[in-house]
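quick q for whoever's on today - can somebody do inverse folding on this one?? i tried earlier but teh output was garbage lol. C-alpha cells:
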C-alpha cells in the first residue's frame, strides 16, 4: 500500500533520485497486470533511479510475505545533466520496468538497499527503499488494490534566501487519500530519520516548504514515504480465502451459506468405478446473501457445473490408473451481499475407486435364509427402496442402528447413521439412479453385549423433492428442529417410518474342545448387518400415508457371504 520516495536537497539544489556509492535518489510504484494461465499473479514494478552514472540501477528483492520473482527487466535513460554541484560530475536518471510472477494476490514486501549517497550535510549515508505490495481485491472497486505514485523532476535549484513551496505530485489510481510522511523506521524507511532543520512537511497535501538555513555546500538527503488511505472503510479479499471481516450473523443460512440435501455429509465415503462418471450434488442457501460460486479441490480432471436449479454439481471420471486409489474432494460454497463475500463450512468426501460392482445390489437373499452369517471384516451391502404414486418425492434416511432385538426402542444400540449424519467409520454411501433409493455398505462393527444376533433397523421418511423447508433438505443435522406449518398449508413430508432386517450373526467357528463356538468375549462381540427393504408410500395431494408400517423384506446377493 506504500511507495517510497527519497529526496536530496542542497541550498541551491533539490533532486529526487538514488546511487550505490553515488546515489542521488529515486521513486518506485507497482501495478497488478492480471493472472497467468496457472493462476499466478503478474506484476509490473516501475522504478526511477538517479545516480552519478547512467550504468547503475536498483536491485529489488522480496523479503517477506507472498514472495515471487522477476522475469524480465528493461532499462531506459530518461535524462542526464553535468550541471551539478562542483564536487559531482553529473547526474543521470533512468527508468527500470520489471515484470514479476507472484504465487497469489496476498501482500508482500519489496526492498532495495545499499550504500552510499553522495556527500550529504545531514549525515544520510545508506539508502533504503521499502514498499508494501498488496493486490487484495477491494470491496469498494471490486478490483485489485493499486499503489500510490509520486513524481518530481530529478533536479531543482533552491535559492538560499528565498522561501519556496514544493507540492509533490502524489496521487492514487484508486482515488484514495495520499499522504507523504518522513521516514521513521531506521534501516528500512530511512537512515537519518529526521527532517532537516529549516523545512516543514505538510503530510496531508504532500507539500514541502523551505524557510531558511545556514550555508553549506553539501546536499540535504530527504527520506520520505508515500502512503494511501481509503476514504471510507473497505475490505480486502484474497483468492486463497484468507480471513474476512466480521459477518452480521454467524448463524448458517442467513449470510453464511448453509448446506442442504442432497449435499453429502462431511466424511462421506463414495465408491466410484473406472471410466464411470461420479456426480456429487451440492446445494446451499442463504437468506441475506446470494449464492454465487463453489470452490473445490480434488483429483485431476474433476470439474464443477451449475444446473438449472442453480445448484452445483462436481463431476469426476476415474481412469484406469486410479483403480484401488482413494481421493478426497473438498468444497465450500460462496455467497455475496453487496461488497462482502461469505463462505459455507468446508465439507470433504472420500472417493474410493473400485472395480465394477452394480451387481452387488442386483441379486437378493431369500427371506428363508435368515439368520445370515458373516465373517468379521466382510463388507455388507444394503439398499432401501421407496415407491410413491406422486411424482417429485424423495426419500431421506434419518437413522440406521444395530440392536439385539427387532425393537426400535431397545437400548443400547449401535449407531450407523444418526440424524442424517454418517456415524460408523466404515460406512460408504453408494450412488443411485434416483432419489427414492438409498444404498450403503459397512464392514463388521463392534457391538457391546452378550447377544448372539442383531437386527439392522432404519428410520426413513418421504418429502417433496427440492423443497428447502423439509427435513429431507436439511440433511445431516444434530440440532433440534420443529416443522411448524399453518393449517392451510399442504403437508410437504411424511412421518417417520421404521424398517428392520435380521437377524444377523457371526459365522460359528470350530471349538477346539468340541462342538462349535461363537466368536464372543465378555465385553465385545462383532456383528455385521445386511438390509434390503422397501418403503411403500401412497401420496395424496395434501397428505402422505404409509402403505405399511413394516418393511417388505427382500434378499441380498448370496455371493456377499
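ok took a stab at it. sequence:
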Amino acid at each position: 500500500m506504500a511507495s517510497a520516495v527519497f529526496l536530496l536537497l542542497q541550498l541551491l539544489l533539490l533532486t529526487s533520485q538514488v546511487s550505490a556509492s553515488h546515489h542521488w535518489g529515486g521513486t518506485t510504484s507497482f501495478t497488478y497486470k492480471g493472472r497467468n494461465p496457472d493462476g499466478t499473479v503478474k506484476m509490473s514494478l516501475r522504478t526511477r533511479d538517479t545516480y552519478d552514472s547512467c550504468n547503475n540501477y536498483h536491485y529489488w528483492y522480496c523479503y517477506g510475505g507472498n514472495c515471487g520473482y522477476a522475469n524480465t527487466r528493461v532499462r531506459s535513460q530518461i535524462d542526464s545533466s553535468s550541471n551539478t554541484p562542483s564536487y559531482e560530475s553529473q547526474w543521470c536518471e533512468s527508468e527500470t520496468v520489471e515484470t514479476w510472477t507472484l504465487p497469489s494476490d496476498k501482500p508482500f514486501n519489496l526492498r532495495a538497499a545499499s550504500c552510499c549517497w553522495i556527500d550529504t550535510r545531514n549525515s544520510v549515508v545508506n539508502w533504503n527503499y521499502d514498499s508494501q505490495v498488496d493486490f487484495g481485491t477491494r470491496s469498494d472497486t471490486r478490483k485489485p488494490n493499486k499503489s500510490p505514485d509520486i513524481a518530481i523532476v530529478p533536479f531543482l535549484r533552491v535559492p538560499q534566501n528565498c522561501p519556496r513551496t514544493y507540492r509533490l505530485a502524489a496521487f492514487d489510481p484508486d482515488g484514495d487519500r495520499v499522504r507523504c510522511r518522513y521516514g521513521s523506521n531506521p534501516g528500512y524507511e530511512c537512515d537519518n530519520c529526521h527532517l532537516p532543520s529549516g523545512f516543514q512537511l505538510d503530510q496531508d497535501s504532500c507539500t514541502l516548504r523551505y524557510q531558511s538555513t545556514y550555508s553549506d555546500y553539501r546536499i540535504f538527503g530527504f527520506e520520505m514515504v508515500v502512503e494511501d488511505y481509503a476514504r471510507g472503510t473497505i475490505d480486502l479479499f484474497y483468492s486463497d480465502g484468507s480471513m474476512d471481516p466480521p459477518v452480521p450473523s454467524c448463524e448458517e443460512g442467513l449470510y453464511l451459506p448453509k448446506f442442504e440435501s442432497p449435499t453429502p455429509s462431511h466424511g462421506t465415503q463414495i465408491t466410484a468405478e473406472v471410466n464411470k462418471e461420479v456426480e456429487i450434488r451440492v446445494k446451499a442457501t442463504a437468506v441475506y446473501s446470494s449464492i454465487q460460486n463453489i470452490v473445490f479441490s480434488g483429483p485431476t480432471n474433476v470439474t464443477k457445473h451449475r444446473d438449472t436449479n442453480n445448484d452445483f454439481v462436481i463431476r469426476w471420471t476415474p481412469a484406469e490408473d486410479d483403480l484401488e486409489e482413494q481421493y478426497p474432494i473438498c468444497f465450500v460454497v460462496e455467497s455475496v451481499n453487496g461488497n462482502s463475500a461469505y463462505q459455507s463450512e468446508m465439507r470433504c468426501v472420500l472417493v474410493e475407486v473400485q472395480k465394477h460392482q452394480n451387481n452387488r445390489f442386483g441379486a437378493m437373499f431369500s427371506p428363508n435364509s435368515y439368520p445370515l452369517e458373516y465373517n468379521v471384516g466382510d463388507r455388507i451391502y444394503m439398499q432401501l427402496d421407496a415407491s410413491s404414486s406422486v411424482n417429485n418425492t424423495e426419500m431421506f434416511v434419518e437413522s440406521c442402528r444395530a440392536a439385539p432385538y427387532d425393537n426400535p426402542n431397545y437400548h443400547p444400540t449401535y449407531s450407523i447413521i444418526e440424524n442424517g449424519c454418517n456415524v460408523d467409520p466404515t460406512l460408504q454411501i453408494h450412488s443411485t439412479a434416483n432419489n427414492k433409493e438409498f444404498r450403503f455398505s459397512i464392514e463388521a462393527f463392534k457391538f457391546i453385549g452378550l447377544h448372539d444376533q442383531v437386527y439392522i433397523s432404519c428410520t426413513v421418511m418421504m418429502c417433496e423433492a427440492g423443497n428447502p423447508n423439509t427435513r429431507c433438505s436439511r440433511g445431516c443435522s444434530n440440532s433440534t428442529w420443529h416443522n411448524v406449518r399453518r393449517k392451510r398449508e399442504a403437508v410437504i413430508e411424511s412421518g417417520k417410518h421404521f424398517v428392520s432386517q435380521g437377524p444377523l450373526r457371526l459365522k460359528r467357528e470350530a471349538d477346539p474342545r468340541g462342538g462349535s463356538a461363537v466368536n464372543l468375549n465378555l465385553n465385545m462381540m462383532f456383528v455385521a448387518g445386511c438390509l434390503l427393504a422397501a418403503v411403500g408410500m401412497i401420496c395424496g395431494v395434501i397428505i402422505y400415508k404409509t402403505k405399511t408400517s413394516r418393511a417388505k423384506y427382500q434378499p441380498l446377493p448370496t455371493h456377499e457371504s
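fwiw Helices lie at 471-474. also The two ends are 67 Å apart (CA to CA). so keep that in mind when u check it
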